[in-house]
Design goal:
heterodimer; A: about 375 residues; alpha/beta; Aspartate Aminotransferase, domain 2; three-stranded antiparallel sheet; B: about 400 residues; 12 strands
Chain lengths: ~375, ~400
């Protein structure tokens, strides 16, 4: 018996309750006498409100989470000849932003359970050329930031926190984005504070980084003297329509995040006993969780995927390949390098639907379907 | 609308100190209001599709713009600046390659070269117009020169026949900074398609403007188009446009995130339907300015005095005059509620970010002269004939004696 409709992994109706507001905002901003569309008052207000929520000195809005990483790396002076230690498992910008500045990404293996950069592995890769560590939070788990912070401090390195996907997460009392010298958030629609367009922010307490990022995001201008360009900058700005929409949605963020966390907890409770049947779920509770994407590690992933599809559940495999084996990055990887935990995660990761408006019945159906697959499977030795 | 008003509370444009109605340097509010049924329909469609960047509206816009320009490929990205960076990389710029660019332009012309890994080499502009001087290009060619990038500023194509000739003689690739040049054609071919490729910016003030940042690469070259398509989406090949699962495609190139928002594509699709009419209206407004300003004392040059190069068409994106006492005139107009812009106050080689290149005042005399005298006046389809007359009256009043 299949479900009456497929439960999408990437739902089309993420913002359905706010579509009317979105159209209103497009009209009001399009016809407003001020005719200010980019980096205006609404963007400044969004930056202030996010900074206040995070207790951060600076939030600087820009065109995407990826661009935010580039701006931070440029602001701290990463350049040709430098190395930045990044996890071997994760999203392309971890390597591409470093290479884009002429530096070299050095790939560290990950923790087999958290799937985030293993601090010991990262520390072992530090050389005289290392400029920064750039751990990333992955799926629903924050990286081991206290240890990474300590390693960075011990070696006099910068710590850049790729918290693009982890907005709302908290570890040891420290919010995601607040552990590094600077952190970033992405607002692309699927993220926890997603929006109907591209955008992101840099979060930092460091006045120099914030000042440099503000300059770099708008062609190296200082915000006072138009058409005077102090540095080679980027065009990485934030649109007013999006800022207005985010201001409208900010009050509901905690509630949406709580619903995501509730679904994660339910999944993990239902899957807690499947480890010896070849399906490893993240823990149901614990510190340092960020309910962005719910990911299982499944030995027989393709079969599980097919089983779920046959029962009306759409899934996604984010990272079928580790970063050092992506064609674009292979030439930067250490010859003969091995990243066994990352490779294992790449073989096994599969993500289930997770969004605030996912109904209880859908969540139960998804959990039941995963369990049915696991329980009819042979136990793995 | 009440529920969003609190987010949008801004003072309305206030009258000038003397009580006259201001003339904004730019507005598209009336155009937007007129197009709202179309914009609304496009936005409603995209909310149903539910992919809000790099989605179906972006694809639809690319197709519509390809038809309008005649380009084989239009690739939508986050800005005109990004379009330049990605075009240069896709066209094969290697680290350390030199690209000859004009000394007079918006910063992105030169910064894009640096961001793409290259080195900008500056050449002065034509004697009459604002495009790169082909003779200066020839003089700037060196052993590391790989490309030349003419820029089509304001209302007129650079001397492309001249530049293409120099490039052919020296084996250089030509890419066009056509960010401002939508609608401009040379011998019937749209700007951006005369060399390996070009770009468009849809910055709100542009002839085809969004209500946020957006841009595109134009090219007839399949390989360049494919490379730009991958580069804008983290270097991923295969289908990613309007296809969420494509985020797991292999990363073949070192890319970035330069996806276009579908809401911007929705606005652009609506505006594209009246682009021809908008261009005609700009032409009429520019002609009215020319007529009124041409013989005013203090006005040295109006755009209509500089004809397009043979085979080229004019599209009046920016109405830029050269005047005496430029800064005083701009201040006078501002005090009278008339917005202006100085495009551009400083030649690119003398910008602080290029200080390390060691250029000095006097190295690029034509660019420097333009920077000292150029003033852009309000020009957009919402502008009325009466507003043009008002701006001209204020300028005439300034030079008639009120300036001292």
């Amino acid at each position: 018996m299949t479900a009456p409709r497929t439960i999408p992994f990437f739902p089309a109706d993420l913002f359905a309750p706010d579509h009317g507001t979105l159209l209103d905002l497009v009209y009001v901003i399009g016809t407003h006498p001020e005719q200010r569309f980019i980096l205006g008052e609404r963007t400044a207000r969004l930056e202030r409100e996010l900074a206040a929520r995070l207790g951060a000195r600076h939030v600087v809005a820009c065109s995407s989470g990826t661009s935010a990483l580039t701006l931070v790396l440029a602001a701290i002076g990463v350049t040709a000849g430098d190395e930045v230690v990044v996890p071997a498992f994760g999203c392309a910008p971890l390597a591409a932003t470093v290479i884009g500045l002429g530096a070299r990404p050095v790939f560290a293996d990950i923790d087999p359970v958290r799937l985030t950069m293993a601090p010991d592995a990262a520390e072992a890769l530090i050389t005289g050329r290392t400029k920064a560590l750039m751990p990333a939070h992955v799926f629903s788990t924050m990286a081991e930031m206290p240890r990474l912070r300590a390693i960075a401090d011990r070696h006099g390195l910068r710590l850049v926190e790729d918290s693009a996907l982890a907005q709302g997460g908290v570890l040891a009392g420290g919010p995601a984005g607040r552990w590094g010298d600077a952190g970033v958030f992405s607002f692309v629609q699927v993220k926890t504070f997603g929006m109907p367009g591209e955008g992101g922010v840099v979060v930092t307490d460091d006045d120099e980084i914030a000042g440099a990022v503000r300059m770099l995001r708008n062609h190296g201008q200082d915000g006072r003297h138009r058409f005077v360009h102090h540095r080679i900058g980027y065009n990485s700005r934030f649109d007013e329509v999006m800022a207005a929409f985010q201001l409208h949605r900010l009050p509901g963020f905690d509630e949406r995040l709580a619903r995501r966390a509730e679904i994660c907890r339910y999944y993990s409770t239902r899957f807690a006993d499947l480890a010896d049947r070849g399906i490893v779920a993240p823990p149901a509770d614990g510190d340092g969780r960020c309910p962005y994407v719910y990911t299982l590690l499944a030995d027989r992933r393709e079969e599980l995927r097919a089983h779920l599809a046959a029962h009306g559940v759409d899934t996604h495999v984010y990272y079928p390949r580790i970063l050092p084996e992506q064609p674009a990055f292979a030439r930067y990887a250490a010859p003969g390098g091995r990243w066994p935990n990352a490779a294992s995660a790449a073989r096994r990761n599969i993500s289930l639907p997770l969004y605030p408006h996912l109904g209880d019945a859908e969540v139960e159906h998804i959990a039941d379907t995963v369990r049915a697959f696991a329980c009819r499977s042979r136990k793995t030795p | 609308m009440e529920k969003t008003e609190h987010i949008l509370a801004d003072p309305a444009a206030s009258p000038a100190p003397d009580g006259s109605t201001p003339v904004a340097f730019f507005t598209q509010a009336a155009t937007f209001r007129g197009l709202w049924p179309r914009i609304r329909a496009h936005c409603a469609e995209l909310t149903v599709k539910g992919k809000f960047s790099h989605g179906a509206k972006v694809a639809e816009f690319e197709t519509a713009l390809a038809r309008w320009t005649g380009a084989r490929h239009v690739v939508g990205v986050n800005s005109g600046t990004d379009a330049l960076v990605l075009l240069l990389r896709a066209a094969g710029l290697r680290p350390g390659d030199e690209v000859i660019v004009p000394a007079y332009s918006f910063i992105a012309t030169a910064s894009a070269v640096v961001l793409a890994g290259g080195v900008p080499v500056f050449a002065d502009i034509e004697e009459d117009g604002y495009g790169i001087d082909p003779r200066a290009v020839a003089a700037a060619v060196g052993p590391r020169t790989a490309m030349v990038m003419p820029v089509h500023l304001f209302d007129r194509l650079a001397d492309l026949h001249g530049v293409l000739g120099v490039a052919a003689r020296h084996g250089l690739a030509v890419v066009e900074d056509s960010a401002e040049a939508i609608g401009m054609r040379l011998d019937g071919v749209h700007a951006g398609l005369l060399g390996r490729g070009g770009v468009l910016s849809f910055f709100p003030t542009k002839t085809l403007g969004a209500i946020g940042d957006a841009g595109a690469v134009l090219t007839d070259d399949d390989a360049i188009a494919d490379a730009v398509r991958a580069l804008r989406h983290h270097g991923r090949t295969g289908r990613t446009l309007d296809h969420f699962p494509g985020i797991a495609n292999p990363t073949e190139l070192v890319g970035c995130n330069s996806k276009m928002d579908d809401i911007q594509a929705a606005v652009l699709l609506a505006k594209l339907t009246r682009l021809d009419a908008d261009i005609a209206r700009r032409t009429a407004l520019a002609a009215r300015y020319d007529e009124r300003l041409r013989h005013l004392p203090g006005v040295r040059k109006v755009p209509g005095d500089v004809p397009p190069h043979p085979g080229g068409t004019r599209v009046s994106y920016v109405y830029l005059v050269e005047v005496e006492d430029r800064d005083a005139l701009a201040a006078h107009l501002a005090a009278r509620g008339v917005g202006t812009e100085i495009y551009y106050p400083m030649p690119l080689p003398l910008q602080p970010c290029f200080a390390h290149l060691g250029h000095r005042p006097g190295d690029f005399p034509r660019a420097e002269a333009a920077c000292a005298a150029a003033l852009a006046l309000p020009l957009y389809p919402d502008l009325t004939d009466a507003q043009v007359d008002r701006v001209c009256d204020e300028i005439a009043g300034f030079y008639a004696g009120s300036r001292r």
